[in-house]
Structure formats: structure tokens, C-alpha cells
Structure prediction request, 317 residues.
Amino acid sequence: MLKYTLQRILLMLMTLLIITCMCFVLVRMLPPVQLPAEDPHTKVILARREAMGYNKPYLVQFGIFLRDIITRWDWGVSDKLYFGQDVAAIFMDKLPATMIVNIYSIILSIPIGIGLGIWAALKKNTWIDHTISTLTMVVISVPSFVYAFLIQYFLSYKLSVFPFLMNSGRNYLDWSMFVSMLPPVLSLSFGVIAGFTRTTRAELTEVLTSEFMLLARTKGLTKAQATVRHALKNCMVVVLPMIFGEFIGIMSGSLIIESIFAVPGVGSLYLNSINGRDYNMFMLLTVFYTAVGLAAGIVVDISYGLIDPRIRMGSKK
Prediction:
């Protein structure tokens, strides 16, 4: 397992480096954003561009970019959105909003999704199972931003239960702030709930028809006891890695949902950096999103072996 983990980490770093290099070269091929001549920060940004080798070959620029990050954790300054400010500091200021919205979404989604999946599996081939399975497929097929518009229309506009946009500020434990976060939380939760429901239902249905479940029943266990002690335990081998992956992905957020509800997180910042051609901000967020996605994949794969000792990844017979 240790050898497999090290191999996956090295592969992740190599993949991250390749993706970063490709994005860096493509971005630097575009003309840099025009700077206002009257702003005092313009000279500072022009000097930084010269130090970062904007007039040198792309691979040399990429080497300078990596050197500054590794040695000084310097990602550059914002050229457009936050003119002249350090992009790493801006990113760290925006990250808590993204994380708190996604944490609430996962806390809401996991018990509901697993509970619906268990209910559907126990009621297999009944109207309850058919209803839950049909709704699950419909929910998975619809993009999350559609739910965002529906929530805004019905719950914010028609019923006036929630505000249209998330409150400004950083007091995330305030009740008014929590209520304003519920629309984006609900929008993000529908797809996650449907995913957990489908996976739990499929795995538990298969486990319930296994031979060892029949043996457990013949030994005198009731259906409820056999389900809780044996079926759910084996079902969690697949479900728990999904939970780990969701928690790793809480920092990534949702680009569109955050923009719709004005969540002051990294998702909306990413879209604004693309539209505003703020290349230093774009590079930091690209590396961040790529690293989160790769790390989530590694955690999911490794967790299989930790949860079920029978699984030995990369071993030879």
C-alpha cells in the first residue's frame, strides 16, 4: 500500500506539472491586459512582468514561475480584478466562503442520500423503489444551475423564504448569514444526494442478495439485524470512499452556483479572472482546482484498501 501511495503521489505531481505548464504557455501566448497609465501600481506591475521574464521564451518564463512559487510562495499580483494586490492573499481571503457553503452541502447531502438509498434497496421492486430511482435519475440529469434558478424563483421570489443573494461579510456563524447560504447549499445538494442514493441503492441491493446474507438469516438473525450488521458494512466499502472524495472536494466549490448567488468564494473569482484576463489569478486557481481534483482521486483509491483489508492495490499474485 505504501508503494502504491507513493506511486500515485508522484504521478499526481507529474500530472499537475504537465497541466500547469500547458495552461501557463497558453495563457502567456495571449496579449497581457492593458494597464492604466495613471495608476501608481502600473510601474510596479510592469517591473514584476520584467522580472518574470515576459520578454523571454515561454519555458524560461515557466521556470521563473515555478522558482518564485517554490522558493517564496509568490504567485504574482493581480493585473485587473484587484489591481496590484497579491493573488495568494486574495485567494486565501475567498476560500473560507467556498468551504463553508460546501461543508453545509455535504452535511445535508450524505445522510439524506444514504438514507434514501437504503430505503430504496429494502423496498426493491416496489413503488417506493421505482419512485426513488426515477427521481434520482431525473435529478442527476439536470445541471445544478437549473436548481439554483428554480430555488431563486420559488423560494426567494414567490415565497420570500430566502434572500436572492448571499449576505456579504465573514460572520458565517450568524443566523442571517446561514439563512442566506441555504439557497446555494440546496442547489449544490441535489446532485450529491442523488449520487449517494444511486450508489447506496445499487450496492446494498447486490449485497442483500449475496449468499452470506442467506447464511446470516439461517443462523437466526432478523432481516434488520442482518442488514445492519452485515449488509451495510459491506455496502460502505463503496460508499465511504465517495464521502472522502466529497470532503476533499469541498474547497473546489461550484463556479456557476457561486456566481448566481454572489457567494464571495473562489468559484466566482475563477470566472472573473477568466473574463477579466487576470492571468496570475487564473494560474493560481487553475493549479488549485487541478490539485484538488487529483488529490480527491488519490484519497478515494487509497481509502478502498484502508476500509477493506482484502483489497491490495498494485500487488502481484
Notes: DSSP finds twelve helices and no strands in the chain. The radius of gyration is 24 Å. The chain has a mean pLDDT of 82. Residues 2-72 form one domain.
